[in-house]
Amino acid sequence: MMQAPLEANDMQTGWLDSATAGFDYLIVGAGFAGSVLAERLARDAGKRVLVVDRRPHIGGNAYDRYDDAGVLIHPYGPHIFHTNSRDVFDYLSRFTAWRPYQHRVLASVDGQLLPIPINVDTVNRLYGLNLTAFQVEEFFASVAEPVEKVKTSEDVVVSKVGRDLYNKFFRGYTRKQWGLDPSELDASVTARVPTRTNRDDRYFADTYQAMPMHGYTRMFEAMLDHPNIKVMLNTDYREIQDFIPWQHMIYTGPVDAFFDYRYGKLPYRSLEFVHETHATEQFQAVGTVNYPNDYAYTRISEFKHITGQTHAQTSVVYEYPRAEGDPYYPVPRPENAELYRRYAQDVQNTPNVTFVGRLATYRYYNMDQVVAQALATYQKLLGGAAAETAD
Ligand code: FAD
Ligand code: UDP
Fold first, then answer.
1. What is the pLDDT of residues 185-230, one digit of tens each?
2. Residue 108's closest CA among 303, 300, 302, 306?
């Protein structure tokens, strides 16, 4: 088990004087980026690491816990692990066993619950047709609006499936989620959701799709369970950075906050999560139901589908998009990339700090991409030494 996390008060009890003359690394953030680097630096390179997080728990946004009813929930929204990277999957497999899980999502459109990503069944059921895979390809070609160069999130969808499907499945959802029209967002946002001509109704098509058998938090506990890693929760790094000695910082929080917003606030989209427990075994047919056109929330997710837990009750979460609040999503659009570039210049000029993760590098990354980025960062930090000793 991981040792008891340190609280700021522990410093007054002399723990720090006796335990250490200083840390090699101060890691800000105990999410995927911070925890992977802590693990590698401590276990592989023998470095002394202090991980601080201002939240009262490890795991960052992937943190999970049992709610009052005893249902395993994801307080920061549903987190489904999927990757095509064998390296990432093998690395995480050192800290957890897995439960195979393939996520399925239905979209509530025109009074029906239809598969999203759009596939042949979506089209047939929406329009009352009976097209084959081949015919649906022709159908898409007949309704698609050619776009000279696909630049925006609107272009991606209308150039593939036309205006009606775009309006029904993407326009409203995106406006709600981002507070922007798809035409104001980079193509990469809606391009996350493919279009299919077959009957595959899985949300992801990656080679590895699985959930940590005992949850994410247990996996993070195993990662951080090392004598060279100390974890201090409920602590902003600014509270301790000047009086706990450290050599190098790894920062995984929002990059604009690190530089005191000197070029202005970099937009991050937030969400409000509303959790409910219901006295029934199942609330909805699949892990997530999207509501592109109705209600103020974008989607409802039911955790037991995702975790495989058996329980007489069930817990769900509604996601309400917000402009203000904890930063969850970078907002991919040209003017934000421009502003990020200004901060990125300062990152270059701050050699004793390494910036890693979704918020610190302002990239709309999934968990596996953050793990890959952190592993690559470790190789860069330790150079040849890391490559030689990697276990
Ligand atoms: P975070 O997890 O955000 O960790 C950063 C940590 O730094 C936080 O714990 C924060 O408290 C701490 N911190 C920040 N500033 C300070 C400070 N000043 N002092 C101390 N600590 C600080 N990815 C998937 O692969 N599959 C999914 O299904 C999926 N679903 C998602 C659903 C939602 C609603 C959201 C928001 C994200 C989802 N993601 C998903 C993305 C996933 O959450 C991220 O890729 C991953 O958690 C990012 O890890 P990170 O370490 O970069 O950042
Ligand atoms: N999207 C949409 N309709 C949907 C699902 C997704 O318009 O039914 C768009 C929307 O802009 C969303 C983006 O595609 O923000 C990416 O969707 P994803 O499910 O990957 O979002 P995340 O899980 O990261 O919130």
1. 999 999 999 999 999 999 999 999 999 999 999 999 999 999 999 9
2. 300
pTM over 0.90: yes
Closest atom, ligand 2, to C-alpha of 174: 11
| ipTM computed for the complex | 0.99
- Domain ranges in the chain? 8-64+215-264+331-389, 105-190
Give residue ranges with CB within 6 A of ligand 1: 28-34, 52-55, 60-62, 76-80, 236-237, 252-253, 271, 328, 357-359, 365-368, 370
Please give the distance, rounded to the nearest whole angstrom, from the Cα atom of residue 324 to the centre of ligand 2.
19
For 56, the 3-state DSSP assignment is coil
For 282-328, what is each residue's pLDDT tens digit? 999 999 999 999 999 999 999 999 999 999 999 999 999 999 999 99
Fold of 8-64+215-264+331-389: Rossmann fold (3.40.50)
- CB contact set of 34 (below 8 Å; sequence gap of 6+): 27, 28, 51, 53, 60, 250, 252, 356, 357
Distance, CA 290 to ligand 2 centroid (Å)? 9
